Amino acid sequence: MSENLSCDFPRASRTLCHDIRVSFEFFPPKTEAMEETLWESINRLAPLGPSFVSVTYGAGGSTRERTHATVARIVRETSVKPAAHLTCVAAAREEIDAIVQGYWDAGVRHIVALRGDPQEGIGSKFRPHPDGYENSAALVAGIRRVADFEVSVSAYPESHPESASVEHDIDVLQGKIEAGASRAITQFFFENDIYLRFLDKVRARGIDIPIIPGIVPVQSFKQTARFAKQAGASVPQWLADRFEGLDDDPQTRRLVAATVAAEQVLDLVDHGVRDFHFYTMNRADLVYAICHLLGLRPKLEQKAA
Ligand code: FAD
Q1: Which atom of ligand 1 is nearest to the CA of 165?
Q2: The ligand 1 atom nearest the CA atom of 54
């Protein structure tokens, strides 16, 4: 049920483990105000020394320029390693390859490679671009052909909404690894058992790359429940109960959110997990507090502007 432990008894989460690694996910900002919030968050979280920070790629490639601009600014202005998300939706291979080459030229060495959602929306059938990469494994192989990138991919502890079975999801994951992926980041989940069972199944198939749990701190219960529905992640009743009646009480909501996320990550630490990927929603405070509980302390100097 658990990965190897290095400080494991009696409860690893009660000792300050020094082998915790975190990464943070951001989305590219749409407005100047959102850009300001994003950079405040990056500057607050960067000193915690994340393994990398990743920037998402909007559905259908809608944020191509903004993703690139955000990632390039991270390279220029911070000491953290960026990872650019990329999908193969609505683009020919040549276009994708040019984007990938552009990242390499900008100093980016890590890409999170995803197939992406169908253009007609989640639930419809994915149709690859006629000259495009047909799936995520083909995209991974394409990226690796352009240059020697580190490539991360997705994994789905509760199955992808299109999936016939968890076994099929693991077949797809295996294909992405054979194409050159060296890390998987999971869709978010709230029941740790779901992740731990998935991990057991993945390991039983001989897959040994890191399968990093994706953690979403609940900034807004309604919004998180909406995302979860789209992503095929279950929202347990106990979670709904914890946020009941707090829609108009942001102060209590934040305290409850911190407690819920802390409970989840500390339990994972007790099960031997040492790597965490946080879906930050571009907000630092909750994630910073959880990282503090995990034993992380500020350490990196920012590059001079
Ligand atoms: P894959 O891993 O290739 O496939 C997912 C599942 O779909 C498979 O396991 C399988 O069950 C099913 N499937 C795929 N192909 C087939 C097939 N041919 N036949 C039958 N079943 C099939 N989306 C964005 O637009 N931008 C982002 O930046 C972004 N970042 C993400 C980051 C993470 C960590 C995760 C978990 C998801 C992210 N997504 C993002 C969402 C992702 O694009 C969607 O979930 C998409 O529908 C699947 O892409 P994938 O690469 O995960 O698919």
Answers
A1: 11
A2: 28
